[in-house]
Amino acid sequence: MAIPFTRMGIIRENTMHIHILGICGTFMAGIAVLAKQQGHHVTGSDAHVYPPMSTQLREQGIEIREGYEPSHLIPTPDCIIVGNAMKRGMPVIEYLLEHQLPYTSGPQWLYENILQTRWVLAVAGTHGKTTTASMLAWILEQAGLKPGFLIGGIPQNFGLSARLGSEPFFVMEADEYDTAFFDKRSKFIHYHPRTVILNNLEFDHADIFPDLAAIKTQFHHLVRIIPGNGLIICPADDQNLQDVLTLGCWTPVESIGAAWSADPIKSDGSEFTVSCENHIQGQIQWSLLGQHNMHNALAAIAAARHAGVPAHHAIAALSKFKNVKRRLEIRGEFQGITVYDDFAHHPTAIATTLAGLRQRVGSERIIAVLELGSYTMRTGVHRDAIIPALKEADIVLLAKPSGEDWGVAAIAAALKSPAQVFPTVEKMIAEIIENTRASDHILIMSNTGFDGLHEKLLQALSNR
Known about the structure:
This protein is of the alpha/beta class. The strands form five sheets. It has a seven-stranded mixed sheet with strand order 8-7-9-6-12-13-14. Strands 18-19-23-20-21-22 form a six-stranded mixed sheet, with helices on both faces.
């Protein structure tokens, strides 16, 4: 039985033992940090333990237990927070239900214990949530507002993915993925935001949603709970989001590309002018690349203005912004070869990441190393979009998904650039070591630990 609201409201004031199932997920790791900052004793279980979240948790003194064993729930914690990767049939879940242990979901715990007293600024959409939420939190921080936040990555300006901060402001990365095995609503429904950025909307999460229309419905449910004194920030040219707003909207809307615009000074997006209603607000010069990040910046500036931060203050803050880990993050440079780590795992994100890097490096070779890691990618839902997404790469190395039977080899064959499919990361590394040369850029794109590829490759290049 889930923990009743009243009980959660009472125990929130006391130190508890909270155990989190799926603690190394980007969202659940943030929940763990927030609970720890509230003074609770926090432990957790996960089958996939890898950086950067595992590193963050250990630095916070949070114990991580490998696997999902019922014994992890003995003695019984005061509260068990169940991640959305947990499913019926798993021994730990069956044990939890049979013994009527106290449980809740991450989004529900978050609302009942933190968000219900806060002004929530939420960033939703298929792409750019982590980066945009990080920008917004940093702007508020530089304005002296000390916001709380929970972000699905580690912003380098903060060094943590979550913190309680000071009231009233709390920045949320608002994911449309489902809440838990016992609550199939999208997570963002629980957050009750006042300020909402809708970055974009495409089909994703094929394990949850049957089609794009189902995702639009969830976004419509989000729009329905944004108050009239709130604000929606949305790109003017995203037809899917316009379709959502057409279903009903009771909140003012500011458009990116109409009310807010960015004019590049440098073609790679590292320097640009920000305008609002055709009035120049200032210029941003930073280390980020690409048109998508210019749009992310506009959305963050607009959201911060709704919270009372003038645009020129926001622009000054973003000029000091450092990107999130695993967002075109340089992991190492060896003999003129640069290795990047990027979280891209959807064709649109792959294309924009490659386009931004191409603008930066010019004609130098880009070697794209791609893991089809998400359910949607590894099951071939986006197979037709993968080929054009990789057009900026000079060489493509694809990891063969486990159990794949829809034709990754055909994608490699159809690419204009030389491309190969590899069954293991060791074979990938051997290929890279043999054929890379000075001035090459190795771009690793994955939303998982990629079987340790990053560290193994860095070590192999160092040894070479």
